[in-house]
């Protein structure tokens, strides 16, 4: 029963995000708004981490299953896109590298800021 409640919280955020997207006339995607809604609920304490943690962990551990429909869709249109496959792969590689670089830079900046805060705390003591 615990897992059903946790799944219900996640699905409620998903549906809430989709409804917000409809209200905003598709300005932002429903899945992005749903995750933002869940984040806001977690930050403000309306939802505690233990309310969603085990189902979220299960979904993250089995994320590959969620990519199967997309891959099957690509296989269905393969004849239409095979002439552009090299360009598509190049864009995928480039965006992956850009994402990795942005993530690494963000982590580096956060570590430097945390280290600076730690040093300032020691200086004030």
Automatic annotation (TrEMBL):
Major place of residence: membrane
Signal peptide location: none
Keywords, comma-separated and alphabetical: Cell membrane, Membrane, Transmembrane, Transmembrane helix
Matching Pfam families: LrgA (PF03788)
Top-level taxon: Bacteria
Membrane topology: Multi-pass membrane protein
Transmembrane intervals: 7-24, 30-47, 59-79, 85-111
Location in the cell: Cell membrane
Name this polypeptide is given: CidA/LrgA family protein
Classification via InterPro entries: LrgA/CidA
PANTHER family: HOLIN-LIKE PROTEIN CIDA (PTHR33931:SF2), HOLIN-LIKE PROTEIN CIDA-RELATED (PTHR33931)
């Amino acid at each position: 029963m615990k897992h059903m409640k946790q799944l219900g919280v996640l699905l409620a955020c998903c549906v809430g995000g989709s409804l917000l997207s409809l209200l905003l006339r598709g300005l932002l995607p429903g899945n992005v708004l749903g995750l933002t809604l869940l984040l806001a609920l977690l930050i403000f304490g309306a939802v505690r981490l233990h309310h969603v943690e085990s189902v979220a962990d299960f979904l993250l551990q089995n994320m590959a299953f969620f990519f199967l429909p997309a891959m099957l869709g690509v296989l269905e249109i393969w004849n239409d896109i095979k002439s552009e496959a090299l360009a598509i792969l190049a864009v995928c590689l480039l965006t992956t590298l850009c994402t990795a670089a942005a993530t690494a830079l963000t982590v580096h900046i956060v570590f430097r800021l945390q280290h600076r805060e730690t040093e300032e705390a020691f200086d004030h003591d």
